[in-house]
Amino acid sequence: MFQRLFVLLCAGALCLGLATPRAEAAGFTFTKIAGTDTAIPGSFGNFQFFGIPVLDGSFVVLNGNGTCCPIQTGVYAGTGGPLQTLADFLTPIPGGSGNFSFLGDAAASGGIVAFEGAGGTSSGVYTGTAGSLTSTADTNTPIPGGVGNFQSFGAPMTVDNGRVVFVGTGSSLQRGVYSFAAGSGGRSRYQHGHSGRHRQLRRLRLAVGSRRQPRVQRLRSRLRRGPLHDHRRPSREGRGHEHSHTRR
Hints:
By secondary structure, the chain is of the alpha+beta class. It contains 4 helices and 12 strands. The strands form 3 sheets. Strands 1, 2, 3, 4 and 5 form a 5-stranded antiparallel sheet that branches. Strands 6-7-8-9 form a 4-stranded antiparallel sheet, with no helix packed on it. A hairpin with a 5-residue loop joins strand 4 (about 70-80) and strand 5 (about 85-90). Helix 2 (about 195-205) packs antiparallel against helix 3.
């Protein structure tokens, strides 16, 4: 009796095992970018701490530092092989004096890397690649639409579609979000509000493709030449008055 029951239980367990799908291990591939056993490029010792990494294509951009002999911090990029130094405490500050003594977490997109850096009396937002850094905005940069120069910079910072966006502050509680066109020859090109004529052109562009397209094209041409003038035809009363004079 017990032997028959045992056989039935074993058979049931076997059936359940065949019916239940087996969990297969996912085939993930991991690549180590840097660790505490990774030597700091151009310095002594290994990394001890890391900031927030960002992914740009196949490259990982990270902020890493060591704690010994002396303390070293830098912004690095890599794909799993030797790291490339974008900036560290041995890098001269573009447009400033001395080397960096502070480097914040980086933002990256499309091959453009941006980060906050400071050293001595200099502080700013810097963009570029290894050996080719540019000061996007620093404490010598006038605040667009504000008073005086920037005094400090902070997170968040974003890079997208060739533009760098950052938060900047100034005197008298001035604070704002500013956009900079990276790759503009090192000169800041901040976006301001459009002028009246530009706003009119923008409205006209929205009407392209409608039945009024020929009129839109004529108005656009006049806007680009200069201020709009009233080119409307005389009213019917005016035309009648002119005809009455002609008859006389």
